[in-house]
Amino acid sequence: MMKKVLLSLAAVALVLSASAQINTRVVSIGPSVGKHTEARKVAKIASNQHWVGLYSSDDLNENGIGVPDFPGDNRIGAYLSSDLMSGYVGKKIVGMRFGLCASQTNSRVFINKASGPLADVSIGDELFGQDVASAKVGWNEVMLSQPIDITDGEGYLVGYNFKQGNTRAGNYYTLDCYPISAVKEGDDLDNKLWIYCNIPTSQGGDGVSWYPFSGQNGNLSVQLLIEGDFANYDVSLKDFSEAMGVVNTNADVTLSFYNNSKEAVSDLDCVVTVDGMDLDEQHIAMANAVALGKNGEITVSVPCGSEVKNREVAVKVTKVNGNANQSQNATAKGTLRVVPKMFNRGVVVEEFTGTGCGWCPRGLVGMEKAAAHYPDNFIGIAIHKFNASDPMFASDYANVGLSSAPSCVINRNGRAIDPYYGSNKSILDDMAAAVKDVPMIGVDVNGVWNADSTVVTVNANIDSYVSGKYDIAYVLTADNLTANKSSWRQSNYYTNFTKQQLIDQGEEDLAIFAKDGDKGSKYFNWEFMDVLIGSSYSNASNLAAPVTLTANETTTTSYDVAMPTKAALKNALKATGRKVAVIAIVIDQQTGQVVNAGKSYNIVSNTTGIQGVVDNAKYDAVEVARYNASGQRIKAPVMGINIIKMSDGRTVKVIVK
Predict the structure, then answer these.
(1) Residues 272 and 217 in one domain
(2) Domain count across the chain
(3) Same domain, 541 and 477
(4) Which of its termini does the chain have fewer beta carbons within 10 Å around, N or C?
(5) CB-side neighbour CA atoms (13 Å) of 594
(6) Residue 561 to residue 135: CA distance in whole angstroms
(7) Confidence at residue 269, expressed as pLDDT on a 0 to 100 scale
(8) What range defines the domain where residue 315 resides?
């Protein structure tokens, strides 16, 4: 059996990564990581052959990953479970390929029997092994001397040997320390990267063994070449579990599919069945064709009807590019929950940052970009915990799984990602995915100052379509915090680059931090947004009582949150006119994930003198922040579209001529 210790993979999945975590230890990784310049040759395969793996396209990552803390003659493999292989029973494995981001003088490929759950794989006999001399950057293909018949219930561990180095150039590991390609494609991005290496007990391991590393960097670039009779047109759907729609409207239900056809999919025809009744066939044209071996999405329209109820829905793909769909998994099923109204999705983005973190300027940009593009959804909480000299330093907050800066987590889903690049290329992609998650509860929040403005009573009104007990956290954040003192200046490592270098890397919005940019100094002044200044947490424990929700009812709750007492922060807040926001976060007690959240700048004075009672006096909304059409924060109006965030939570778009 493989070891059950789950470790985080030291990753250079991004061009400018500064650090990564291995077993809670931070490893410095340099900004010198570059993209591949060598050609990636891919062999043409026969019409009766398909590449099969955790993903099946020709894609490779442009930036490698590795485990330089655990050097040596290591092995890495992908677990292709019997469930994954079930669609290929009766066919044959005739070859395999693996992708590299750094060449290997000597390697070896292997295919072993394997079984068991993803987190506890049992390795069986080796079915195939072959040495590979001078494995190159890109795909390396190997043909089997004897085909392997795929039988029912059989799974495989498929991989290769690699030399893991730990050489350094100055303070950073060299590029050859990151030979592994992993791509964010495939159905199961939570799959593990299984690595055979030496991890001593002092670092959480048990010597030389197989270990499951987190697959958050993507699926391993290793695939089997399978030969047999394949359908010409084969598009399979995945069940969608549950969707929501409003009574007397049509709900848009998004489904994911996999293309195993002989060609790219440009259009599909579908039949929707609601409560056993077939509706008219829908024709869906793809905005972009979905290639063989790729996943895609379609959106079908489903009538909700005039009753508030659950409706059973089935969607069947009948045609692919006008031809009959031959897939054995052509139908997706799920439940459509018809509700009186839809709740707004609040996306909580908690970021680990600090003024002493030289790579954190990209987090400043990423968070503000997310706020500008998703003003009705983004709920940022910037946790300044990198350096104690930071005047916004916050030592008392929830442990949300962030251990290096800059990093963030969305809705406490357990995945630490970059606040600029997100989980792949842009935080906006992660925001787009999070917004699609339809909430079952709605959170409306406001606040009340006490007499001397040292405490804010956070009031939350929670509408719910479900019943149950949930945790609830209360948070205060502040915007536009700055001061003309050295302790407030942000450290900046982007002075190692020119504006043009960053532009060439596709990071034009970071060019202001380059050595020839507007903020091109090693330390610069900034107006910090979404800064954590108070919460219901003490020593990482939430002191707020859980809340019990009842389906189709509104629950009201409140909590007193103290304002900061440090002089530097108090003075900065005073200078901004106290641009403070209140946030209420409802949390699933079982998973620890955010169910939904609300945010508002509506904090009024308590004229009654009673805690928890909202003053009904008129609240005059003011401008909190302004952005241009590209999502960059601006100090004053500019020509074109201006996006203005108001203190009452509204977002206004205006055209400045």
Answers:
(1) no
(2) 3
(3) yes
(4) C
(5) 30
(6) 59
(7) 97
(8) 235-339
